[in-house]
Write a sequence for this structure.
């Protein structure tokens, strides 16, 4: 595998394809890697705690969707028998019988409400459950009989609660005493997803912890313990301590916080919603010695495997299948989907394809997802290095700095466009005799090209298009048919992509064939030799992997 990677980085044309002579070696190395249960290799820690591997492969935090503003704009007026009446509360009072009285009364600054002919009634600190009895006792001192009393809280006075710790916007927030902790956290912008804990939340009153909150109870079970807040209460969100990342065949591919109820692989499979088809798990653990340990466990072992902080767990199904599915596209007259046995070669499948008169049997193309993924990863790695160079490049003069800044802007725009390209994953098959050595994989796409007599010219030419092949004509002939080179064309960087996916660089003499594509790359202008070299390399990679010229 290392030889292949070095080969790819040494020769620009190998970036977009995989030669069939290397396929067997790659598959053998991959098989050996998968079969090893314990692998140790040098590896660095995560760059950020909430990401896995690369920026393109991030795993979100479980509960991240909770704080998106759906809670902070709503309040809940829930009857709370233990609520103690405070200044500013509104009391809806009704008296009937021998005397009629109905009004909404506000508790004044001294904690009283005033009832005509009864006088002041002090309600400060009275529990909600005792409200009627306290008022009735005062009314009965004046009206001995045939008087009935009903009272209810009409509006609660707002309370002010401090929200601090690992939240996005710590501060003092107003709400009702009956509002939940989620509402106050939402007002504070939610829990910080990088280092905030959803399981370590404390409610403090008079500098004493009166309650511990674990939001996993709400997220997983829908349980919410409501209690009355008071002005001056503090919601303190702690930092996440222990966590594991989950991916694979699960309903919830997130970062989970570990606790007493999530200790083992079995617990993690439960909260992550592992699908019934899951039969095994691959666990990547980072040790204190900066070594990466990779272990595989079957489902029967899940309950015995203890999790460690930072573990990356992938739950997988392990099918014992004797067949694979192949897709056939292009110029043929048969079925588009074929089910064949494992180990079937391209030569075997070619006997099953119903070719027609227009089928180019000698130029079958194989596209593979794993090859496309490798091409994408190589391009992204180069783009990331290019981005670093563009952002860190300096100049000694102010004029040079302005030029560098403008170049950096253009390069960053190019990087964003380059990230959107999707490699085809074509395997180069230089000779039809090699069909018997290409062992097909599940999901492979076999394309049957048509016997067209066209040559496609694209990139930095005046009139890109498809032109009729003329035997004996050279590359310059087709460039001229396309209006000649454009102003930004780099005539030293012209590629010819054969119908079998093989890329060849034009060096002044090249034989053209029907179905060829000519790609004229743009000039790369940069005083920084590193940036120049990397941009050139990336343009080659993209052109070969996608058959498209990406402009700078």
């Amino acid at each position: 595998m290392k030889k292949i990677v070095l080969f790819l980085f040494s020769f620009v044309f190998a970036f977009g394809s995989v030669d069939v002579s290397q396929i067997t070696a790659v598959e053998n190395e991959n098989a050996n890697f998968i079969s090893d249960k314990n692998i140790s290799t040098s590896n660095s820690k995560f760059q950020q705690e909430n990401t896995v591997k690369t920026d393109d492969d991030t795993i979100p935090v479980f509960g991240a969707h909770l704080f998106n503003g759906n809670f902070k704009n709503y309040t809940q007026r829930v009857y709370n028998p233990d609520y103690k009446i405070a200044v500013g509360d509104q009391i809806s009072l009704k008296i009937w019988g021998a005397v009629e009285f109905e009004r909404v009364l506000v508790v004044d600054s001294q904690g009283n409400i005033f009832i005509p002919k009864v006088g002041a009634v002090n309600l400060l600190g009275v529990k909600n459950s005792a409200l009627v009895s306290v008022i009735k006792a005062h009314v009965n001192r004046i009206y001995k009989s045939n008087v009935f009393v009903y009272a209810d809280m009409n509006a609660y006075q707002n309370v002010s609660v401090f929200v601090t710790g690992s939240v996005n916007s710590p501060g003092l927030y107003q709400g009702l005493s009956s509002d939940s902790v989620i509402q106050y956290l939402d007002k504070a912008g939610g829990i910080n997803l990088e280092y905030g804990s959803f399981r370590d939340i404390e409610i403090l009153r008079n500098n004493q912890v009166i309650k511990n909150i674990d939001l996993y109870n709400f997220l997983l079970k829908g349980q919410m313990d409501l209690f009355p807040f008071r002005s001056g209460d503090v919601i303190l969100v702690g930092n996440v301590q222990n966590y594991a990342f989950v991916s694979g065949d699960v309903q919830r591919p997130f970062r989970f916080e570990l606790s007493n109820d999530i200790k083992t692989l079995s617990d993690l499979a439960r909260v992550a919603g592992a699908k019934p088809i899951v039969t095994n798990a691959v666990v990547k653990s980072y040790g204190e010695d900066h070594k990466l340990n990779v272990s595989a466990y079957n489902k029967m072992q899940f309950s015995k495997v203890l999790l460690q902080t930072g573990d990356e767990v992938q739950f997988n199904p392990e099918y014992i299948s004797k067949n694979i599915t192949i897709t056939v596209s292009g110029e043929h007259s048969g079925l588009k989907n074929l089910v064949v046995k494992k180990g079937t070669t391209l030569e075997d499948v070619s006997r099953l394809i119903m070719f027609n008169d227009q089928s180019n049997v000698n130029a079958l193309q194989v596209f593979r997802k794993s090859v496309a993924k490798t091409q994408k990863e190589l391009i992204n790695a180069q783009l990331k290095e290019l981005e670093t160079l563009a952002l860190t490049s300096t100049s000694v003069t102010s004029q040079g700095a302005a030029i560098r800044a403008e170049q950096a802007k253009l390069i960053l725009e190019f990087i964003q466009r380059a990230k959107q390209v999707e490699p085809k994953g074509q395997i180069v098959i230089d000779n039809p005799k090699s069909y018997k050595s290409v062992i097909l994989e599940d999901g492979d796409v076999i394309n049957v090209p048509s016997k067209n007599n066209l040559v496609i010219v694209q990139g930095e030419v005046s009139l890109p298009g498809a032109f009729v092949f003329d035997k004996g004509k050279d590359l310059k002939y087709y460039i001229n048919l396309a209006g000649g080179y454009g102003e930004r064309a780099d005539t030293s960087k012209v590629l010819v992509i054969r119908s079998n996916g093989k890329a060849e660089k034009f060096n002044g003499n090249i034989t053209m064939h029907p179905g060829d594509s000519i790609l004229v790359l743009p000039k790369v202008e940069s005083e920084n030799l590193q940036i120049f070299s990397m941009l050139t390399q990336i343009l080659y990679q993209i052109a070969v992997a996608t058959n498209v010229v990406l402009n700078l």
